[in-house]
C-alpha cells in the first residue's frame, strides 16, 4: 500500500503537471531570463515579484513631497492624524488607491515617495480627494 500511495502522490504532484509546468517555465523564462534573477536570494526574488508586504507608515509619511502644501499645514496634519488611526487593511487600501497596488514596489522602502498636492479648486468643499496613480500624486483638497 505504501508503494501504491507513493507512486500515486508522485504521479499527481509531479508527473501529471510536468508538461504544463514546462510550458509555464518556458514562457516565464522568455519574459524573465534566468540569468537576470539567479543573483537573488529567494526572499529577495519574492520582494521583486510581489513587492513589500509590510510598510513602515511613519517612513512613508516622512518621505512625502508636498506641493502647494507644507508639512505644517493643518490639512496635512489632519490627514496624517486620521491616516495613522486607520487599520492596517485601510492603510493598504489607501496605498492601492494611490498606486494601484496595496504593496510598495520592490525597490527600497526608503526610496518610495509620493506627493500630496492641493488641486486648487475654486470651491474645495465640492472636491473629493483623488489620485494620479501614474505620477503618485494624492490630491487633497483643503
UniProtKB/TrEMBL annotation:
The keyword Ligase applies. It comes from Furnarius figulus. Residues 1-142 form the HECT domain. It is an enzyme of class 2 (transferase). Pfam families: HECT (PF00632). GO terms for biological process: protein polyubiquitination. One of its GO terms (molecular function) is ligase activity. The lineage of its organism: Eukaryota, Metazoa, Chordata, Craniata, Vertebrata. Its EC number is 2.3.2.26. SUPFAM superfamilies: Hect, E3 ligase catalytic domain (SSF56204). This is HECT-type E3 ubiquitin transferase.
Amino acid at each position: 500500500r505504501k508503494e501504491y500511495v507513493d507512486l500515486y502522490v508522485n504521479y499527481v504532484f509531479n508527473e501529471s503537471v510536468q508538461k504544463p509546468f514546462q510550458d509555464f517555465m518556458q514562457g516565464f523564462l522568455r519574459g524573465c531570463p534566468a540569468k537576470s534573477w539567479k543573483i537573488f536570494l529567494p526572499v529577495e526574488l519574492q520582494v521583486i515579484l510581489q513587492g513589500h508586504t509590510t510598510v513602515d507608515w511613519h517612513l512613508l509619511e516622512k518621505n512625502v513631497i508636498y506641493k502647494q502644501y507644507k508639512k505644517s499645514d493643518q490639512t496635512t496634519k489632519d490627514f496624517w492624524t486620521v491616516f495613522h488611526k486607520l487599520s492596517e487593511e485601510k492603510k493598504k487600501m489607501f496605498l492601492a488607491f494611490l498606486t494601484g497596488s496595496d504593496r510598495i514596489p520592490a525597490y527600497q522602502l526608503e526610496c518610495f515617495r509620493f506627493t500630496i498636492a492641493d488641486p486648487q479648486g475654486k470651491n474645495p468643499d465640492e472636491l473629493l480627494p483623488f489620485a494620479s496613480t501614474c505620477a503618485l500624486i494624492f490630491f487633497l483638497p483643503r
